[in-house]
Amino acid sequence: MKAAPLAGRRIGISISESPDMAILGLGFEHLQDAMSEIARHLLACGASLAYGGDLREGGFTELLFEIVERYRSRNDEGRVLVDNYLAWPSHVLSTPIKLQSLAEALKGMADLVLLRPDGSRIDLSQRLSVAQPSNELAAEEWSAGLTAMRNVMASRIDARVALGGRISGYRGAMPGIAEEALIQVGKKSPLYILGGFGGCSLAIAKAMGLTERSASLKTPASFPGLDQFERLGTKDLHNGLSPSENRLLAKTVHIDEAVALILRGLMKLKPKSRTRQKRT
Predict the structure, then answer these.
(1) CA 190, 3, 46, 156 torsion: positive or negative?
(2) Are 165 and 200 in contact (CB under 8 A)?
(3) Measuring CA to CA, which residue among 214, 238, 263 is closest to residue 20?
């Protein structure tokens, strides 16, 4: 049987709420639909997914698990389709019972990748013996833990798709999608930027000259890390798309068009010849 076109590839998804949705005439459900369609098509083409997020109820992590459960095929039985990376600050604040219950519920479908502050992996059995901190973690702990998680994740994925993104209220050194995108281009690994949903991804696209930005949008003219994108161009995306295709991807609000472009780019690229880290 012929292998699926993206078999063996792991695609990271960077997504969070965008402050511009209402101004663009879109709602939160449009961002959810975009994630669903991107994930569904990648899974159908044989890829697995990776996401770095927390365990909030109703959040994108929960949505991603629901998508995988809904769309995995019979051939995917027992195959881990999602790696959910959890930075130390994110999972250490969760109860051991919740982590264990979630891991059991996701067994054979998704993998919880729990990381220490330095980015090394900690087994669930080891994590269960760690007591929850009695106080809120310091900002420095959040920043270091999130950066470590994003570096680890970037080293284990074959490409990243970025859309939406908050630009305030973030806990890291800069907005999460901005940091993930910078790490991705720093590794010369494929990056797909969808700016049509506003937020951090639109600001990145504008800084790179991929699209124009409406003055009425809420995304600020600057935030930490944004200036670094001004020195980048389409060649730095390494995503198999032409400059005109990247500009189209950066501005479209039609998710079917965005999905077609993402798949076109991925299928033009050769899979990385690197050894996958063994799951623990």
Answers:
(1) negative
(2) yes
(3) 214
Phi, psi of 92, rounded to the nearest 5 degrees: -70, -20
Residue with tokens 């890829």: 47
3-state secondary structure of 160: strand
For residue 131, what is the DSSP state?
P
Residue listed under structure tokens 């009425």: 216
**Rounded to 5 degrees, what are φ and ψ at 255?**
-65, -30
- Tokens at 279, concatenated: 């799951």
User: Which has the closest alpha carbon to 65: 47, 83, 41, 42?
Assistant: 83
Rounded Cα distance between 54 and 259, Å, is: 25
For 69-111, how does the pLDDT look when each residue is reduced to its tens digit (9 = 90+)? 888 777 777 788 999 999 999 999 888 888 999 999 888 889 9
CA 48/CA 70 separation, integer angstroms: 14
Residue 114 Cα distances to 129, 139, 241, angstroms: 13, 19, 34
Is pTM beyond 0.90? Reply is yes
What is each CA distance from 121 to 21, 142, 195, in whole angstroms? Answer: 36, 17, 33
Helix H or strand E segment including 50 = strand 48-52
Token pair 């919880």 in the structure block, residue: 112
